[in-house]
Amino acid sequence: MRTKKSHYIQDLILEGEHEHQDFKYQITDARKIARSIAAFANNSGGHLLIGVKDNGNIAGVRSDEEIYMIETAAQMYCRPEQQVSFKVFNINGKSVVKADIPEADEKPVEAPDDNGVWHVYYRVADENVLASRLHERIMSTESEIEESHNAETITFSEREQVLMSYLRDHGGITLEGYMKLAHISEESATKIVVALHSMGVLSLQYHDGRCLIVGN
Fold first, then answer.
1. Are the C-beta atoms of 193 and 205 separated by less than 8 Å?
2. What is the rounded CA–CA span in Å between residue 141 and residue 108?
3. Are 174 and 189 in contact (CB under 8 A)?
4. Is 31 left (phi over 0), alpha (psi -120 to 50) or beta?
């Protein structure tokens, strides 16, 4: 007989891995799991199901050990450190840990790679990807920008009009593509994109390993 808790976990597993959910058979490397924590925190949050194989089968874990490893990852290998909350579910005698990672108040969140070099990670579909420099810049300035822009009353400069016109006609463009299109430097292009993003008139999407600027 399946309990409500069993139904809840099984329903989550049926969703598969996605932007806000990742399966982990077990936690063996605190630095590696820190990348998942950072990626979720830099996005809009998410959760880990520990004790679940990639194919969705429940293997179970020793919950205390897994929680300790994740807490270590969040506190020692995330910069700034992150807070993770836990729930342990007993499914047919096997423990599954659900680790919830909220969206970070302070971005970007960094984690080290296998060589100990710190990077910014972002969650895209069911993967943790390296955030682009443009995305890092946007994340680092989001909390500093006033939310008083009204896109309907903004007069765009020629360089901004070039970008918005291109996005209307073609859908998306890389930062490098915009630099060539408008004949401007990377710094100038970045400042324009950051400003327009803060106004809510464009956003970033990752596609085939590229960070694209797209219109909203």
1. no
2. 9
3. no
4. alpha
The sign of the torsion formed by the CA atoms of 30, 33, 38, 41 equals negative
Q: Tokens representing 202?
A: 């464009």
Q: Which residue has the higher pLDDT, 196 or 143?
A: 196
SS (H, E, C) the chain: CCCHHHHHHHHHHHHCCECCEEEECCCCCHHHHHHHHHHHHHCCCEEEEECECCCCCECCCCHHHHHHHHHHHHHHCCECCCCCEEEEEEECCEEEEEEEECCCCCCCCEEECCCCCEEEEEEECCEEEECCHHHHHHHHHHCCCCCCCCHHHCCCCHHHHHHHHHHHHHCEECHHHHHHHHCCCHHHHHHHHHHHHHCCCEEEEEECCEEEEEEC
d(CA 80, CA 170): 38
Whole-model pTM: value is 0.90
How high is the pLDDT of residue 1?
Answer: 35
Both structure tokens of 162: 């070039």
Contacts 24+ apart (CB under 8 A), 153-158: 154/199, 154/201
pLDDT digits (tens, 9 = 90+) for 141-166: 885 654 444 444 556 899 999 999 99
Q: What is the mean pLDDT of residues 12-37?
A: 96
Per the CB < 8 A criterion, the answer to whether 185 and 176 are in contact is: no
Q: To which residue do tokens 């909350």 refer? A: 85
**21-24 and 46-50 strand pairing:** parallel
